[in-house]
Amino acid sequence: MGLGWHATAASERTEPVEGLRQNTPSVHAFTGATVVISPGETLENATLVIRNGLIESVGAGISVPTDARVWDLEGKTIYAGFIDAHATVGQQNPRTESERGAVSWNPQLRSHLDAAGEYNADGDGAGALRSQGFTAALSVPTLGIWRGRAAAVSLNEGPVRERLLRGEVAQSLSLRRSRELGTGYPTSGMGAIAFIRQTFLDADWHDRARAAHAENPAGTPRPETNAALAALAPAARGEQPILLEALSDDEILRGLRLAGEFSFDLWILGSGHEYRIADVLAEAGRPLILPVNFPSTPGAATPEEALGLSLEELRHWHLAPENPARLAAAGIPFALTTHGLGRPGNFLANLRKAVQRGLDPETALEALTTRPAALLGLEATHGTLEAGKAANFIVAEGDLFASGGKVVDVWVDGVRHRVGDLDEIDARGEWRVVSANRGVEGTLTIGGRPDRLTGTLVIGEERIRTERPRYRSDGRRLRVAFPGEKLGMEGTVRLSAIVSRETLLGWAELPDGERAEWTGERVPRSEEDKPDETPQEEEPDDERDSGDPPAEPERPQLADIRPAMEYGRAAPPDSPEHVLVRNATIWTMGEDGVLEEADLLVSRGKVVQIGRGIAAPSGAVEIDAEGRHVTPGLIDAHLHAGVFGGVNEVGHAVVPEVRIGDVLHLNNIWMYRQIAGGLTTAHVMHGSANPIGGQNQTIKLRWGQLPEKLKFEDAPRTVKFALGENVKRRTSRYPNTRMGTEQIIADHFRAARDYQSRRAEWETNPNGVPPRRDLRLEAIADMLEDDILIQCHSYRQDEILMLMRLSEDHGFHIKAFHHGVEAYKVAPELADYGAGAVVWTDWSSFKIEAYDATTRNARLLHEAGVLTSLHSDNNQIATRMNWEAAKMVRAGMEEEDALALVTLNTAKLLGIDHRVGSLEPGKDADFVIWNGHPLSTFTRADQTWIDGRKYFDIDEDREARRQVERERAALLQLVLKNN
Amino acid sequence: MTHNPPNHSAVPSAVTGLLTAGCLLASAAVATAGPGLLPAPRQIEPVALIGATLHTVSGGVIENGILLMEDGKITAIGTEVDFPDDTWQIDVSGKHVFPGLIDAHSQLGLHEIGAVSMTVDVEEFGRINPNVRAEVAFHPESRHIGTARSSGVLVAVSAPDGGLISGLSAAMQLEGWTWEEMILRRATGLIINWPSANNETTYERALRDLRDAFADARAYRAARQASDEDDSLRHEFDSRWEAMIPVLAGDVPVMVAADDVRQIQDAIVWAEEEDVRLILLGGRDALQVGEQLAARDIPVVLSSVLNSPARAWEPYDAVYSMPAKLREAGILFAIAGTSAAANVNRLSHEAGAAVAYGLPVEEALRAVTLNPARIFGIDDRVGSLEVGKDATLLITDGHPLEYATTVHHAFIAGREIDLNDAQRRFYHKYSEKVRQRAVR
What we know:
By secondary structure, chain A is an alpha/beta fold. Among the domains of chain A are: about 100 residues, Beta Barrel (Lipocalin); about 270 residues, Alpha-Beta Barrel (TIM Barrel). Chain A is built from 24 helices and 42 strands. In chain A, strand 38, helix 20 and strand 39 form a beta-alpha-beta unit. The longest helix of chain A is centred in the first third of the chain and has 27 residues. Chain A is globular. The two termini of chain A are about 45 Å apart. In chain B, helix 5 packs across helix 6. Chain B has 2 domains: about 120 residues, Urease, subunit C, domain 1, CATH 2.30.40; about 280 residues, TIM Barrel (Alpha-Beta Barrel). In chain B, the strands form 2 sheets. In chain B, strands 1, 2, 3, 4, 5, 14, 15 and 16 form an 8-stranded mixed beta sheet that branches. Chain B contains 13 helices and 16 strands. Chain B is α/β, with parallel strands linked by helices. The relative contact order of chain B is 0.17. The interface between A and B is large, with 60 and 51 residues.
């Protein structure tokens, strides 16, 4: 290990000195520089004095201490050292072995780990950060859901004990599990959130349980001791920030919801998509850390390849570099980070791109100095160049925030780190060369890029192109070889020289083995033929050439749309005070049946009146629907669209604590296609991998709204159960048979009863160790209270019957059996029991339990008195549920009964028929205008309304698709110019 | 299935059959007792359907018409038809007669239950299987045959899949005791799965394999010919290349499954270079190559219309509206029922969706009748109501592409077929359960 940090740092330390003490003076004066004291405050021709790792004084007329080493920095600029608000420095190769000690049962819960304690100084990557001007960083643990506590460290060399600036700055959190830590629970996005939720409760309980036990150790059973939960307690109480690594704008929204639920101090590391939710972030006012890892230019080498590029991808590629500027314009403060860059060495290049795309350099400097200093609690010692603060600064040539700017030195705690050598010598240029014996004279010209030099030697009339010259500025040796033929020598001539600013001192090896000395003198050059300055940074991630960016092509003006993809909306649709649809055939699905030449009056999002000759209130939007049909908005009872991170939590067999509502996904093109087919409400469901699966989410298809606004406001909670093949597919997990499926469900309902009674006892007699809140059992207890409606995936008649009987024994109720391919075989039993059936029309034979399918399933169930609905279980089919209903007409049902299968009956089975499913006064104005009979093959939807707002209009769609084409074309042109 | 609904009066008229009263058939009622559908015997006596609207497809619509079937063929059609004395005259006034629908691409008979691999005979081992033939594995007892028929599909082109050269498809009429009886035409196409062009390296390699296969087959043909002419030259049999000789001769078309622009263009050029007759299957991007397809008379079989576009930026109705655009481009096309055996009964819905999005209804009907018949060279037998063609037809209460329409009776080559498929039988059986419960 080097001794560098001993040389100048002056604080006390515990490590004994072996050998001789090194006391090189640590007093330096930097004179003549432009000093940026803080964002917005710059001194010209100023002096900065540092002593013992701290700034002693700074200012324009300061006398240089006599004991200082003086650095003349005329023409240079000094900035405060940058602070990386979210780095992985020192967290390389984190431990993944199953933990020792009293820690969590779940390897994804690592809150007890401490970045300072885990810090690995060997190859920590500090050098790469320093090369970009960083002098301090938040070192953040990288693995797990609860990852442990981040620590602020100085980016010096040496042991972390001497570099730690502040420990336990924040608890790091991810909404995704790390596969490196195992593939158990939670496996899904929603499972991760459920686990986070439970962990908050457990941390609180652990605190109270330990305290209760400590108070009365003899009389109470001993609760568990859990270091992870103990370590999490301050963050759970809101006393320590929780730093969420958000990998999308969706994840930020999820984090904000969790923060609202558990009142913690949320910090957000963004993903570069934040501009898409700037309105939300402005309102949330949470600390924000932004990356500059802009996406690389999409591949569009051929027109065919370009067909595969979505507008979503193209837009984000184009807008991502504007992310910081757009957030700044929205008045949102932020810090910047190298996080997400494949190589931190690309930071400055990408930062400049952000500046080029509108980020004010002063804001950028703030985001790299004062903002992160304040965020990390380092404002007293870091972030500006003020006396008393740490001697952390950057010596730069040129403007660091513009092309051509260059980091020369970075000083950390008073220790110099060379980045680009101050005295770097460039071999390029024209040299007059002469052999020692004066026999040969000529001109050697070195050109090209530093890593791809070119050489030309002119001697007399002969012009010789050399092989590629080699030169590195640190060793300063130039090597050139060329064929000797033109000089009358057969073979290769090799030249080698030490380069200084104005001279070459070299020798040559001739083909015949002779050696000759030679020298060179630089030919003075005029300014304009100076070789290209190449920035010392590595190439930005998305550029093949890191030279000055080419003249920017004209940028398409892209409106802010939501979702930020094809067919996204600039604003939610209008909500007219009144809407009157005239002269339509109206399928009310209520007592009025089907009304010909009727009018529908909607006011403030609700159905007010249906009948003939309704007078239009003043200002009403009137729609002449003559010859057209109006039906209630269609409802799909079973869909899996727009769910992030998997629809199955397969980590455990029983997972009712997980919630689809936690992971609704913003950018879901299917939603647009579904409203185009008249769908207005959907029951978005957990998958079928679990006997007791997760909670589902009923949504309205309010295309363009944020996920939270999609939720059907007062829909009852529902949960997915599953029977049959799917739940026994995982051979490593109970159950493996339909027999075991019965048993595990029964077991959990018994446990939920016990849980209820334990909690009830505690309510009346709160002594001893408090019972733990268990969201899994709590959800099952809610099923016992009918607060959560059970929607059960099933195929065969035996399993359907089994669950009905089991539920009768245990006092719960099944609201509906889904798929129910053999439900018709137990139709009378279903009718007697009072369960609904939600079935396909004609899906069949994709597995053995689906072999006895019949297209008359829904018909027979309906005839037997079972409340029956259709479902899609498929994104595409959900775009045309009216045609699914139409199939049941072919199967022999009456038309209105068939349409009820995708409207009123479905609403009843989801417990939302008080608001939707029929067009009756007081209900939501969710309706579809069809260009013909809604159950005809030859009909399509013209308009789809939800809450009295028109979310789809076939004419607007024609314009929208032209807009999509125009934007794609403009962006593709930009892609081509970039390639 | 051994259950027999005891009360025939609960069974709708379709089950009892049009001709049950006569001596021709007593099959339909019996069929409910057997394990599957009971094939009907050959037509012996002439049958005249009288009074229906005849939708000939090839020759317009004949109101209040008469259609005469003899010995399995249509022998007369019009408003005034003479028929023999012993003709069974059936009054179908108010009804409609259509040619039986044809599913231009399916795995019917080869695929029973998806997740039970032993019931699936679709993909043979290896990548080059030009010699495997769909008809010999066509399972006459497949349940999906019954549901296909009662939805109006009376002919299906059944095809193997997988690998590079999947094998030979066959047009099957959906009635008969054995696959042999059900063959309408063998070798309707050599199925080729055009390789994915997403990966340049694997694409090149696969195309080379394809070209090699055809070159090898040509060499084989030449060698065989030479040995036929010259006894001293011996060349031994190769099943694969032997099977490709009719393809090389242009007697059997190649049906290439390809979706992307590049695949389609490459397939067009390849087929020209190989001098083989091309049918395009799938053809998601066919419109992008529409002029070339039209100019070369290359027909397209659309695997599915009831679908959404693969790319987010494409209009929501891009697939629904594609048939209308293909027609405008002058391309001959057929619509298939998604290819899945269990989905053949959706064929009419697939074609109907195209009507909602701009295709004239008579064109949609052609896409599931005469067009596929022409594409596969079975238009001498099926695809329209014409004298001389098989009496393979439907008697309905409306247009067969409309959801509300029911197929009341169907004939395949003059035989009235049993429409009481397994799905209907399940319905009747468990309706009886409901009834018994109500009585109890």
